[in-house]
Amino acid sequence: MELPRLVYLSSRRGQLKVLNLKPKTVVGPEAAAVSWVRRLSGAPLAKSSAKSGRSPSRQVRDAEATRTAILDAAEEEFARFGLNGARTEAIAAKTGVTKAMIYYYFGSKEDLYQEVLKRPFDDLFNSVANLSLDEMTPEAAVEALIEAAIAYESSHPYQQMILFQEASQNQGNYLKDAGLKPIYAKIIELLERGMAEGSFRPLDPWFTAIQIGGVVSFYFTTYENMKNIAPDWWDFRNPDMIARHKREAIQLVLRGLRAD
Fold first, then answer.
1. What distance in Å separates the CA atoms of residue 91 and residue 134, rounded to the nearest whole number?
2. Can you list the alpha helix ranges (DSSP code H) found in 86-158?
3. pLDDT, tens only, 211-230
4. Which whole number is the average pLDDT over 139-164?
5. Hey, what CATH topology would domain 2-42+54-107 get?
6. pTM attached to this predicted model
7. Alpha carbon distances (Å) from 228 to 30, 164, 231, 234
C-alpha cells in the first residue's frame, strides 16, 4: 500500500490531523490501521498492494504481539503519569508503532487505559479460578487466595502506582469496571462460608476483605517509600523477601480469622 500522506488522529479524541510524511509502504496490521484512519477522515482508500508474503497465522501472531507490546508500554506510561498526563506519542515511541496503530487496536486513549486497568485483574481472576477454592476448607482457600494475590502483586510492579493514579485523578471511576469486584466477592464468599461452618469467628466480611487486601498489597504499595527507612539488608523485590512476606501475611490473616 503506497501512502504519500498519512492521516493521523491527534491526541485530542476525534480530531484529525494530516502529517506531511514521506511515502511509505505498509502491510499487515499497520495497513489496516491506515485504512481505518482513512475511513475516519474521508480520504480515499488506497488500492491493495502485492501480498506481504506472510501467512494469516503469522499475521495473527504479529497482531497479538503488537497489541501486547502496546499494553506493556502503556502500563508504564499510565503508572508514571496517570490517564491525564500519559501521552500516546510516548507509548508509540516505546513500542515502535505509529499512533494510528494504537488507535486502530484500542480506539482511544481512554479505551487503552481501561484495557491496562483490566488486564492484571483478568490475570488474577483466572489464577484464582484455577485454584478450585470451593473444594477447599475455608482456611485453606484463604491461604491459597493470599498466595495467588501476592504472586500477582509481585509480577505486576506497575499495578499499585496505576491504582494510585486512578484514585487521585479519576476517583476510581474507571476502576469500577476493571474486574476488581469479582475478586472481593470471592473473598467475602469464603469468609461467610468459614463463619457458617464455625471455623472463622464472627466478623464483618466486607471490612475483613478490605483488611486482607491491605495486608497483601501494602508491602508493594509503599515500596518506594519504605525502602528508605527499612534496614540496609532489606530488599523488597528479592524473591526470598516476597516469600517471607507471603508466610507472614498468611499467618497474620489466619490467626485473626480463626474461631479458636
1. 41
2. 88-95, 99-106, 109-129, 138-155
3. 999 999 999 888 888 888 88
4. 92
5. Arc Repressor Mutant, subunit A (1.10.10)
6. 0.71
7. 45, 20, 8, 10
